[in-house]
Design goal:
5 strands; rod-shaped; 151 residues
Length: 151
């Protein structure tokens, strides 16, 4: 049963009205402001749901990236094991040695030519976003061995 009194919302006039307890803030407010509170809660829930969906999507994307990397690592570890076995056998043919040499060489080239995208966000007052794409190669590494970013 509603109480009679002044609405606790700062924007409301001081007239006596039926007051209802808001279930989110527990303040006694008039029906108009109670409806406003409900709308705010709905919008917040929608925003939270959107963020949760975005997080699920980005987690799935990251998981795919990790799985691809793990698969690549597994292949490369297998390549190392194959090479060790070939090196342990003194009767390995020139073709076997050249074949494994080429596979390793291609793997190294592939690993060095991978591009990475780096998003650099400025925390300045303007909150400007800058994006940069750089290749991980000797041209982009400074004398300290750290990757240089070009904006």
């Amino acid at each position: 049963m509603p109480e009679i009194g002044s609405c606790t919302d700062e924007t409301c006039d001081d007239e006596l009205k039926e007051l209802y307890e808001c279930h989110c803030c527990l303040h006694l407010v008039c029906l108009y402001h109670l409806n406003g509170h409900v709308e705010i809660i709905k919008k917040n829930k929608q925003q939270i749901d959107k963020l949760r969906n975005k997080l699920n999507t980005i987690i799935n994307t990251l998981q795919l990236i990790i799985n691809e990397k793990l698969s690549t690592i597994k292949y490369e570890q297998n390549l190392i094991e194959q090479t060790k076995q070939i090196l342990d056998v003194s009767s390995s043919s020139i073709d076997e040695l050249e074949d494994i040499f080429e596979k390793i060489k291609q793997t190294i080239i592939l690993n060095r030519s991978v591009e990475m995208m780096v998003k650099v966000e400025s925390l300045s007052l303007e909150t400007t976003n800058h994006s940069s794409i750089c290749k991980s190669n000797k041209e982009n590494i400074n004398s300290n061995g750290k990757l240089k970013f070009f904006l």
